């Protein structure tokens, strides 16, 4: 866990721009401050770059950091410790003497979160801060274990975030390739349709003339059928006129039945109202009988 934590810290030192990965130039920038030659730094980079894509993800870096040569790892570890020490002693001595205990705890917690890179993966660190302050106050011997646990957690969160970014990039590339393929197929389909349309127009002239002659014959036949339908319609109109006279008589009968129906409905409503009143009176009598029965039982 200590090695992984220091590897994560050194990764953040190299990745000053916060890209989420390290290039050769990022590592070579530290050459003046490391007791390693450019050839040794190149060897370190090539060894850690397992997939050979010219960049190191946090997962590749931390895995290779623990498996690479002890000498090089020790030098990188010493450099990360030196950077950490410089960060902790950056505040002037006079300022440390004047801050209160609360401000000192706030500074130490903020420094811890900065070293862990928590701001990149955690929006609200209030819960972590409360637990850290509680351990610092009540169980100081467990504070180092808690910080190591945070190192592992934030390292895994950073790896998950990097994997998500890699998947998003891969997905965007696949979508772009898919769009290009669809566009190519669409263009080929348009060319094919245009070619077939031209061929169809060339062959369609004779067929259209033959089809036009057939339509004329069908039109004459339909006109004859229409004439027959007109004669039939006249006969039907005459029958409708006869039916209308009978419909007037039916209408008068319907009006009479409607008035009778309305009278029956009014009688039914009256009977229903009387029935409701009778039911209410019956319910009142039942309640009184129930009360009398209860009094009798008492």
From TrEMBL:
Domain of life: Eukaryota
Alphabetical list of InterPro entries matching this protein: EF-hand-dom_pair (IPR011992), EF_Hand_1_Ca_BS (IPR018247), EF_hand_dom (IPR002048)
SMART domains reported for this sequence: EFh
Pfam short name (any one): EF-hand_7
Keywords carried by this UniProt record: Calcium, Coiled coil, Metal-binding
Gene Ontology molecular function, alphabetical: calcium ion binding
Coiled-coil regions listed in the entry: 150-295
Domain EF-hand: 36-71
Protein name (record): EFC4B protein
Organism of this sequence: Cepphus grylle
């Amino acid at each position: 866990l200590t090695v992984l934590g220091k590897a994560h810290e050194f990764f953040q030192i190299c990745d000053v721009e916060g890209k989420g990965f390290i290039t050769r130039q990022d590592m070579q920038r530290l050459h003046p401050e490391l007791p390693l030659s450019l050839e040794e730094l190149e060897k370190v980079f090539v060894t850690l770059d397992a997939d050979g894509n010219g960049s190191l993800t946090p997962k590749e870096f931390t895995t290779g950091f623990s498996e690479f040569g002890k000498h090089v790892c020790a030098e990188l570890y010493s450099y990360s410790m030196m950077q950490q020490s410089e960060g902790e002693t950056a505040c002037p001595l006079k300022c440390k003497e004047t801050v209160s205990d609360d401000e000192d705890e706030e500074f130490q917690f903020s420094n811890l979160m900065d070293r862990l890179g928590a701001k990149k993966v955690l929006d609200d660190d209030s819960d972590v801060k409360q637990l850290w302050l509680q351990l610092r106050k009540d169980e100081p011997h467990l504070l180092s274990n808690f910080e190591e646990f945070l190192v592992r957690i934030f390292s895994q969160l950073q790896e998950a975030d990097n994997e998500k970014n890699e998947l998003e990039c891969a997905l965007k590339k696949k979508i772009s390739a898919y769009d290009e393929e669809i566009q190519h197929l669409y263009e080929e389909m348009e060319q094919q349709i245009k070619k077939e349309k031209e061929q169809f127009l060339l062959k369609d002239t004779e067929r259209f003339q033959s089809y036009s002659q057939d339509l004329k014959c069908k039109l004459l036949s339909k006109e004859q059928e229409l004439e027959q339908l007109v004669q039939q319609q006249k006969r039907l109109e005459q029958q409708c006129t006869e039916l209308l006279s009978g419909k007037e008589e039916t209408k008068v009968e319907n009006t009479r039945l409607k008035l009778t129906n309305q009278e029956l409905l009014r009688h039914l409503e009256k009977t229903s109202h009387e029935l409701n009143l009778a039911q209410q009176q019956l319910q009142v009598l039942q309640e009184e009988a129930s009360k009398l029965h209860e009094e009798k039982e008492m």
